[in-house]
Amino acid sequence: MPEPNTRTAIDLENHFRNRSKMPEMSEVTDHLRNVPGQKLIGVTDFEGDGRYTSFVHQKEGPEREQYGNACYLPEEGTLFVHTEEGNIDLGHFLVVGHPEDISIFQEKKSSTPPKIEEIIKVANDHEAIKIMGDTRDTRKMWDCIGNRPDIWEQLDGIKITGSHLHQQYWDVAHRHGVERKTPKQIFTSDGHSVKEILTTRMYAEIPDFDLLREEDPSQAVLDWTKQAVTQLTSDDKVSSSNYVANIAHILMVLWDQGGGPIPSLRGLIPGCNKGDPFHPDYQPGNLEAFSRWFISPLHW
Predict the structure, then answer these.
(1) CATH number of 6-239
(2) Does the pLDDT value for residue 86 go beyond 70?
(3) Which of 74, 189, 193, 208 is the most buried if burial means most Cβ atoms within 10 Å?
(4) Alpha carbon 153 to chain centroid distance?
(5) Is 159 left (phi over 0), alpha (psi -120 to 50) or beta?
(6) Mapping DSSP to helix (H, G, I), strand (E, B) and coil, where does residue 46 land?
């Protein structure tokens, strides 16, 4: 008789820090005890920067079991899963459950962000979960995804909101997807600090993590995470905003991208580079660099 599933709190995207030393594992586990029950947490690299590996392979901390694409803490009932975010032609893209020594985005590294279909192909090669993330141009994204079933039907989810207050686009997604398979709405914290982990979370019924020892663990992690994603609904989520982070994030978005009829703020200030701030070779002007330095610590 199969074991009953366990209600699990899920947050598939948190970066823990902003390109700096990762927190101690004990700091994270102390925070996670505020949420009872089994927990599945995505530790998110940005384009292969190694945050996941740095975090799960700390010498100090609780007992853990390494599975290649995940790290299980039996005493805490917590599973940390390798996830990775990166730039594509339409914005950000989140990949979940691939081996920690593989960067989906480094495989397609070039002077310009890869096309969404290229990243989907690499993710498929590693059986990873594929989630469309934040977009810089909502209309452009939906013109592409909404009119291409070959892309739409390969997505496992679309990230609708994190702990940020920026404009989202699910109403458009629903209209595009009404006649076909609709990717799941994915709610994540998308945080950059320990205190933001699980502030936005969803719940699903998946096997108890102790049963990973009776399976091929890395494959079971992938299968169970996919099982969880298929169950996620906006009716079963918890969201608690970090308002300082929200305001700072809005400022950063307006600075880089603008919003609706509002032009990017960097383009209005003398001394700012007018190039694409998401291009790998982009160099900010001195005033822009100072302004980003001033704003970003509030968020990251």
Answers:
(1) 3.20.20.140
(2) yes
(3) 189
(4) 20
(5) beta
(6) strand
Query: Which long-range contacts link 255-261 to residues 24+ away (Cβ below 8 Å)?
Result: 255/291, 255/292, 255/295, 257/136, 259/166, 259/167, 260/167
Q: Where do the domains of the chain lie?
A: 6-239, 243-299
Question: What is the token pair recorded at 112?
Answer: 């310009």
- Residue in this structure with the two tokens 């002077």, named with its chain if needed: 111
pLDDT, one tens digit per residue, over 17-53 is 765 678 999 999 999 999 999 999 999 999 998 999 9
CB of 75 closer than 8 Å to CB of 64:
no
Confidence of residue 205 (pLDDT cuts 50, 70, 90): very high
User: b/e per residue, 161-198, with b = 16+ CB within 10 A?
Assistant: bbbbeeebbeeebeebbeeeebbbbbbbbbbbbbebbb
Q: What are phi and psi of 34, to 5 degrees?
A: -70, -20
Tokens of 155: 């997505």
Amino acid found at 20: S
